[in-house]
Write a structure and sequence with these properties.
Low-confidence stretches: 7-12
Strand order of the largest sheet: 9-10-11-12-19-16-15-14
Largest sheet: 8 strands, antiparallel
Helix content: 25-40%
Radius of gyration: 26 Å
Strand content: 15-25%
Oligomer: single chain
Distance between the termini: 51 Å
């Protein structure tokens, strides 16, 4: 991915651009430069009433509570037992306190108790031994030289607060923040690298480099600091280009919508500050690929807050309204999301400052829309087909994927698909499990949410899908019309099964009043297999349809999905299973296993999934 900024001005001219930079100021955040007027409008406007109520409720909850302590005992748990949640809950609680009292201090500067809590929160975070999480601190480099996602975010947060809070932040604390950001981020970035994430083609490059670049744009404005700023921007710009390499021209985020919000969000936060300080001379937003990536979110919603959640993603998401409206304001092709999908201030378990602030700051960049329109998308590079269908019977969604088995946050899921109706899933993707040491190790695919065993894909002669870039799906045919969306992929390369010559999976999604999906799998093997199995994944306990013994029912009350199959060819086995979700909680899920009764070298299997009203 070429860097448009370097291409246009030339690398040697970066110093000239830096010399012409305007200093950072409140006008970057407030269009009229009047911060008090903006916060008064937020306090008084109905458009912000829910946001303000959530922030105030969180403030009242936290007010007077002691800042939780980050102990060595908590830090050491990851090394001892591989668990992350114990330390991270406290770590993120401290950032929630900082965010909450910073926003309340801006909203109600006359409240001395808010200011006191804010200064205590800043002091506590400045006193942490490291801003990194234990899972990201290894033996390859000293803790003091380690930069991870959250240390970079913390530095960006504190840098931004020094500007927004102004004289309300004591000079001693300002000086301490500046010294810490230099010592923990800016200087290691230049002198202790290269870091693995600098050339990453996923969210780490955008978040780490973007946060460091943003912090430098906010803190470095003196003439004597120009050389330091130039060196940081040179490295940051290279990392931004690497990040964009992880996307195809279709703009699809293989990490999923949650990581789009995260990685692309921090890309935008940095690019916005760069654009403003250079008065538009350095402009990432002029790139067509960036516009394509900006449109990814609107493609992912399948009705309500149900979203396409391939990879380590959640099945239900809200939108960061600030980021979304900023992008809709920049690009005609990007749709502003419905306000009903706005993320609750308290929802982000990582308590990130940058999106929380911009959900207020950027709210007015674009208007509101009632809902996402019906639409079909074929993401050619990602190998995804997505269809959102709207009728008088409701909103229905279907998504299927090809791709390869070495994607960021990879799952062994070629041929995976999902079905949603009225904002609920009937055929599911488990999505994102609890992040532990083992989750990102060689045993990653033992976890059901990651391995092929936890996806709606065939098991061929006892063989599951294998990992690797060469384990890929090839698109054979695709077609989208007003009445139907169709996709055929070849899946044989996904399996380490020597006798498997071909496995073609075809989906035909009929966009009726109550939609219907036809699935056809064609197996071709050189030898007669011992076993062939079709597996489908759901969170709903299945039941036999009353009107037909050859149909299975996935019932959610007023809406259900009927699954029709040939009982002469297949034997059904339903198994209740348990998996551990991202929050460390156990959840029930079900596998619907259809065993081929008479496996042969050539087998064709057909299934029909029909939505019905109850």
């Amino acid at each position: 991915m070429d860097n448009p900024n370097v291409n246009r001005i030339g690398q040697r001219q970066l110093s000239d651009v830096v010399e012409r930079m305007v200093p950072p100021g409140l006008h970057f955040y407030y269009p009229d430069g009047d911060g008090p007027a903006f916060w008064q409008r937020v306090r008084e406007s109905k458009a912000y009433a829910t946001d303000v109520a959530e922030i105030k409720a969180e403030g009242e909850h936290l007010l007077g509570q002691a800042v939780p302590e980050l102990t060595y005992a908590l830090f050491s748990l990851f090394a001892k037992q591989g668990s992350r949640l114990e330390y991270e809950r406290v770590y993120f609680e401290r950032r929630r306190r900082l965010n909450t009292f910073a926003l309340l201090g801006l909203l109600e500067p006359e409240r001395e108790d808010y200011v006191e809590e804010l200064l205590n929160a800043v002091w506590a975070i400045c006193s942490e031994l490291t801003w990194c999480l234990p899972a990201h601190v290894g033996e390859r480099r000293p803790v003091a030289d380690t930069i991870d996602l959250f240390s970079a975010e913390t530095g960006f947060t504190l840098a931004e607060l020094t500007l927004l809070l102004g004289d309300r932040l004591p000079k001693m604390l300002k000086a301490h923040i500046l010294e810490l950001v230099h010592r923990r981020l800016l200087l290691p970035f230049l002198e202790k690298g290269p870091y693995e994430w600098e050339e990453a083609e996923h969210n780490w490059a955008a978040v780490c480099a973007g946060s460091i670049g943003a912090a430098s744009l906010l803190l470095l404005q003196e003439e004597r600091e120009q050389d330091l700023l130039i060196r940081i921007l040179e490295k940051t710009e290279r990392s931004m280009a690497c990040y964009l390499k992880g996307f195809g021209e279709d703009g699809g985020c293989l990490e999923g919508l949650g990581y789009w919000n995260y990685g692309f969000g921090y890309f935008v936060y940095y690019a916005d500050l760069l654009f403003k300080r250079t008065q538009g001379e350095l402009d990432w937003f002029s790139l067509e690929k960036v516009e394509a990536i900006a449109g990814f979110q609107q493609k992912c919603f399948l009705g309500g807050n149900a979203v396409v959640n391939f990879s380590d993603s959640f099945p239900h998401e809200q939108v960061q309204l600030g980021l979304s409206r900023y992008l809709a304001g920049r690009y005609d092709s990007v749709q502003s999301p419905p306000s009903a999908l706005r993320a609750d201030y308290r929802k982000d378990h990582c308590s990130r400052w940058a999106p929380a602030l911009r959900n207020l700051m950027w709210r007015e960049q674009a208007g509101d829309v009632p809902d996402w329109p019906p639409r079909d998308y074929m993401l050619e590079d990602a190998g995804w087909l997505i269809s959102r269908t709207v009728s008088s019977a409701g909103i229905f969604g279907f998504a299927a994927k090809g791709g390869h088995n070495d994607e960021p946050h990879n799952h062994l899921d070629l041929g995976q698909f999902m079905l949603a109706g009225d904002g609920e899933f009937y055929l599911s993707d488990l999505g994102c499990g609890e992040y532990t040491k083992g989750y990102f190790s060689a045993g990653r695919y033992v976890y059901d949410c990651n391995g092929a065993q936890g996806h709606s894909v065939p098991i061929v002669n006892g063989c599951l899908q294998a990992a690797g870039r060469q384990r890929k799906a090839s698109v054979v045919e695709q077609a989208i019309t007003g009445q139907e969306a169709r996709l055929t992929i070849e899946l044989a390369a996904a399996y380490e099964c020597p006798s498997l010559q071909s496995l073609r999976r075809t989906w035909r999604w009929h966009k009726h009043e109550l939609p219907c999906l036809e699935l056809k799998d064609v197996f071709v093997l050189t030898d007669r297999p011992d076993a062939l199995l079709e597996r489908f994944v759901t969170l709903i306990r299945p039941e036999q349809a009353e009107d037909d013994e050859g149909q299975l029912l996935l019932d959610r009350g007023t809406l259900a999905l009927k699954l029709a199959y040939d009982r002469e060819l297949l034997r059904l086995e339903v198994t209740e299973r348990i998996w551990r979700n991202h929050d460390g909680e156990d959840e029930v899920w079900y596998t619907l296993d259809f065993h081929v009764l008479r496996p042969e070298r050539h087998v064709e299997l057909d299934f029909i999934f029909q939505f019905v009203r109850r």
